Amino acid sequence: MGQTSTERLRDYLAQLSPKAQALLMREFERALERGEDTAVATFVLEELRKIVRGSDEDTTPRAEDPARLLFRPLEPFLIEGSAAARPGQIRRASLMPVWQWLGRDGAPDAVRAFEAALAQTSPASPASDLNRHVRQVQIAAAEAIERIAGGGDHRALSRIGPPSVTEDMAAMAAILKASEALDTLNGRLPSFMRAFGESQIASISAALNVPSLQTRQLLPFAISLVMSRLAAPWQIVRLAISVAASDDELRVAGTPYGVAVTMAIHDLTRIGSNLRADIKRGQFQNVSDHLKTVHDGVRGLRTELDLRTDSTWGRQLASIRVDISNALQSEIDSVPGRVRRLLRQRPEKDISAHTRIDPLEVDETAALIDFVAVCRTYASELAINEVTLRTFSDLQHYVEQSTEALVESLRGGDGKARAFRQQQVKAAIRFCDVLFGHDYASLMRRAADQALAGERKSSRAG
Predict the structure, then answer these.
(1) Where are the domains of the chain?
(2) pTM of the prediction?
(3) What is the block-wise mean pLDDT of the chain (462 residues), using blocks of 10 residues?
(4) With helix as H, strand as E and coil as C, how does 107-155 read?
(5) CB 395 within 8 A of CB 336
């Protein structure tokens, strides 16, 4: 890579947010650990570390960081932020307070011995040596966490961190102790399961049938590993139904695997919250994916499980539908008004040489029309069928009539009005593309060109 390319890369990386820089560093470190793209990953990592640390010093790879090595078994289960974690999840923010406590009070001797062993480990050292040291400190950490978490000393726990940290500690200890069993399970799972059918369920059930994974603490994390391989994570409920040998929610809830249903509903609730947040911010690029996920998940759970409307699971699913329906309906109702504001034919006296249509508003309105079209696909399951179909039909009728009228208006009027009408026609054709498809939009574009050409000939003849 030449000097100029390096500088461009460094400038680009420096412009990223700290969160994006951290994410890139994690992914490239994992690529290095897997032996993938080592040349590119090493180069980009060096540049990132210079930016993040502010100097060329202290460029020890984070993959050799003691805390990172200790907590590596927790990686598949970490979530960002300090929000409520569902079963099978641990907050990433909990790791550092626990590491600091281990070095200070929890297992200081084991931590110091581990750090000393790491300092003496060279790249030429056998991997088995490093793994042995890591396993020793993981066992010591797990035992220390179990002692304080089970001791009932709330004051001691409060010195480690806020309640969100102490809530995660028991699960952290369980994972550290059972990391080898989880690694074995991870190795036995298929890399990807497009459909979670009977043969896959039988195979997964056998893989999970290990005493160390069947505890109340560890089973949700084992199930999380399975969910991470599913194309549609909500299908994990089929495993719970298989274990219960029934789709009745009471029988499913009565088995240890009932937690899988709780996990699936929690994930759908989170996706629904993200969907509502995106709609509120006017960001529609991920709406289609979120809508499909929630729609398929809600429909799947309602189909596969015999749910009672007054049960906890039944009420949770109903709440997801109501919350999304309210958010979607409010936004859908606003779209026709925005379209009319852009396409209505103003009197020529109200149009000046400076009258313009904001291209950004056109882009946003086109995105909203597409949003209505996407909602139409999932309307019935999300209880927005009537408003979506009515709004889409109204939009088609209004845009079709307005486009034809605007194209015709290009044949007359003074120059300043015609320039503004051209902007309106361009916006209308953009909306036609979304509502009727590319062929119809192309037809209206040719009609607009012909109208303008005919007006120019008429002007010259005059």
Answers:
(1) 3-62, 68-180, 192-307, 340-461
(2) 0.76
(3) 61 72 70 56 67 50 74 93 86 93 94 90 75 93 92 83 91 95 92 91 94 94 95 96 96 96 96 88 83 92 93 94 88 92 88 86 92 87 84 95 92 77 94 95 93 65 50
(4) CHHHHHHHHHHHHHCCCCCCHHHHHHHHHHHHHHHHHHHHHHHCCCCHH
(5) yes
